[in-house]
Amino acid sequence: MKHIGLVGVGAMGEPMGASLLRAGFTLHISAHKSRERVERLVKQGAIEEKDPATVGAASEGVIIIVPDSPQVEESLFGERGVAAGMRSGGYVIDMSTISPIASRSFHERLRERGIYMLDAPVSGGPTRAASGELTIMAGGDEQTFKACEPILRAMGTPTLVGPAGMGETFKLVNQIIISVVMLADVEALVFAKKSGADIELLRKVIATATGSNYILDKWLPNTWFKGSHEGGFALDLLRKDLNAALDAGKQMQLPMIASALAGQLYLQASEEGYGKLDYSVVSELYERPAGVRVIE
Predict the structure, then answer these.
(1) Cα 65 to Cα 16: distance, rounded to the nearest angstrom
(2) Per-residue DSSP letter, 271
């Protein structure tokens, strides 16, 4: 495949599109919300199309990366959605983070039209999207994965993790973990600060102990520890993913006690106006009542 479409030129879609252009693909895109991002990709060589249907008509494979299931539905099956323009035998790679149940439905509906699909959500955020180092978790059949693998490798490291919907399942597992681990890190650091601990020394020691984790070692130094919660991964986007996991857990009659508590705390932070900031901003719910600032 040479001609690749991209629907969802947002904070993740733009750097992913740039990676595809660097890899030599011909990229077809259409504007939805951000004209500025589209124009930047056009300057790098992307071709702007009228709408998702014309993107589908121009492309052998189309990547979708939008916020949630309703937006995937509209992008694929709306009046001018990708499926309206794509020829039989084409490929759709949905890299959004959505419900595995919804994803399996999209697989089936596209297959009825002769279009093959992967659900392939990503982890790594805009920074790793820009460097082409995303972790990509793909659900679908092996033949479709092999056909799409060169596209995926232009953006990161893909792994076929199982049948339709399993990519979304793997991604939601990741979101459950990071939601709860962030709370553990924040709670522990505020505890340490209130106790008078040297935070820098604490971080160095914990980095060699069993409490070491990716968020503490890699994520927080680029957000909270810099004295800002700008950039990163928006708290409201994490809430959306966590809610999808909780809904799936409910359908499986699975107790998700820690995830439910995390969801309540992130909701409180969102209601206080922090929804667009990195989810490390949940620290405000701990620092304020404790009367301390971990990073001063």
Answers:
(1) 10
(2) I
C-alpha 16/C-alpha 131 separation (Å) is: 9
If one counts every other C-beta atom within 10 angstroms of the C-beta of residue 126, the result is 17
Q: Please provide the DSSP assignment of 1-69 as one string.
A: --EEEEE--STTHHHHHHHHHHTT-EEEE--SS-HHHHHHHHHTT-EE-SSHHHHHHH-SEEEE--SSH
The pLDDT of residue 256 is above 80 = yes
Tokens found for residue 130: 């820009």
Q: What is residue 175's predicted lDDT score, i.e. its pLDDT?
A: 97
Please give the backbone phi and psi of residue 273, each rounded to the nearest 5 degrees, phi first.
100, 15
Kindly state the average pLDDT of the residues 157-162. Answer: 98
Q: Looking at 100-182, which runs of residues are DSSP E strands? A: 116-119, 122-123, 134-139, 156-162
Tell me how far apart the alpha carbons of residues 237 and 244 are, in angstroms, rounded to a whole number. Answer: 11
Q: How far is CA 143 from CA 52, 91, 148, 168, 178, in A?
A: 25, 11, 9, 19, 32
The answer to whether residues 219 and 124 touch, using CB atoms and an 8 Å cutoff, is no
Kindly list the catalytic residues: 171
Q: What is the pLDDT of residue 165?
A: 97
Say how many Å lie between the first and final Cα of the chain, rounded. Answer: 52
What is residue 125's predicted lDDT score, i.e. its pLDDT? 84
